[in-house]
Design brief:
The protein is mostly helical. Helix 3 crosses helix 4, helix 3 runs parallel beside helix 5 and helix 4 crosses helix 5. 35% of the residues are buried.
């Protein structure tokens, strides 16, 4: 597993739900996984980027929050994958997601700060866990898909009108597929022209 604390390695927020975006903090699951939350600063950046920061300014995150976040992420991933496949999830994954979801989550606020909490990082994780519970137990689960790019393992909520979305995002994988298709067609045309 490769780890990167490089701020240029942006978090993909294309899942359409906080829990799907959170699962994406481990990238390239099909190949050599890329850990996008290697340290407290990265988790704080994800919480802020996801719009789950409880206050203005840096989100206080402890090392134990990172350990808990990674465990929750893998449990959410396991529960989602099992539900998508129509299988029973691992009871340990269910127990962890339920335990974190039962904790105090972010309280919505009017005004410049959208959320408040005594323990912002833990509350953000509770909010993510609750989102996973609602998604897995609700009617939107059937719209969760895996990106059609074989090199991508991101899950997303297909909110397209025709329900035929194939890519985690057009900017990420959709454009790569279009370019590859164009190059393949161009090579095929050049090869057939050379043969005649």
């Amino acid at each position: 597993m490769t780890t990167s604390a490089d701020p240029a390695l942006a978090f993909p927020f294309s899942g359409g739900r906080p829990c799907l975006d959170f699962v994406a903090t481990l990238g390239k699951r099909h190949a050599t996984p890329v850990e996008r939350i290697p340290d407290p600063a990265a988790l704080a950046r994800w919480i802020t980027g996801a719009g789950l920061a409880a206050e203005d300014g840096p989100v206080p995150v402890a090392v134990r929050d990172v350990t808990e976040a990674r465990a929750l992420r893998e449990a959410v991933h396991g529960v989602l994958r099992a539900a998508m496949a129509g299988r029973d999830p691992d009871p340990a994954d269910v127990a962890l997601v339920n335990e974190v979801a039962a904790r105090p989550d972010l309280a919505p606020q009017l005004g410049p700060s959208r959320w408040t909490s005594r323990h912002p990082a833990r509350a953000a994780l509770a909010t993510v866990a609750r989102d996973a519970v609602l998604l897995v137990g609700g009617p939107l689960l059937e719209r969760v898909k895996e990106c059609g790019n074989p090199d991508c393992s991101l899950l997303f909520l297909d909110d397209s009108q025709a329900r035929r979305r194939r890519w985690c995002s057009m900017e990420r994988c959709g454009n790569l597929a279009k370019v590859a298709g164009y190059r393949s067609r161009t090579r095929g045309t050049a090869t057939s022209s050379a043969a005649t």
